[in-house]
Amino acid sequence: MMNTPIPTELLDLIHQSQRVLCISHVSPDGDAYGSLLGMVWLLRHLGKQATPAMHDSLVTEFRDLPGAREILPPRRVDGAYDLVISLDASSADRMGDVYKPKKHGEIPLAVIDHHATNTRFGAVNWVAPECAATAQMVAYLADVLDVPLTGKIAECLLTGIVTDTLCF
């Protein structure tokens, strides 16, 4: 069970948004991909337009995850969003060149991360170091939002949890 409850402000931002840019960290690992893509599928289940983006090119071992080939590079990310969600990044610089302060600075930034070193750089920060992976946090979020953990969402989140725990 989580010690850090999901901030009401995060839930409000998700409910109020329509176009969401989801970003994970540079030098991505399984939790970066799993939490990013799991969040995208969760938001799409809620009827949102969700766009995944990362600083680095797609890593071969994660190319078959559902939605992985949709991940945009920094040059293709525009500013036409009403919410930015940073996943598994402990500081703003970890988002690389995807987050552009001139384009995105006026858009609410929500941070979802499990690292104790998180600098709480968002307008809303949900930091839960007791969680083994950010993908675990997205699974909790899905539960609160009544999004079933099946299919694409489950595959992505399980990838994040398994890789960050080294298979539990």
Integer-rounded radius of gyration: 14 Å
Major sheet details: 5 strands, parallel
N- to C-terminal distance: 16 Å
Q: Could you give the count of β-strands?
A: 5
Strand share of the residues? Answer: 5-15%
Report the principal-axis shape. globular
Would you tell me the structural class of the helices and strands? alpha/beta
Enumerate the strands of the largest sheet in spatial order, edge to edge or round the barrel.
2-1-3-4-5
Q: Please state the average pLDDT score.
A: 96
Helix share bin: 25-40%
Number of helices: 5
> Which consecutive residue ranges, at least 5 long each, have pLDDT under 50?
none
Query: What string gives the helices and strands in order?
Result: HEHEEHEEHH
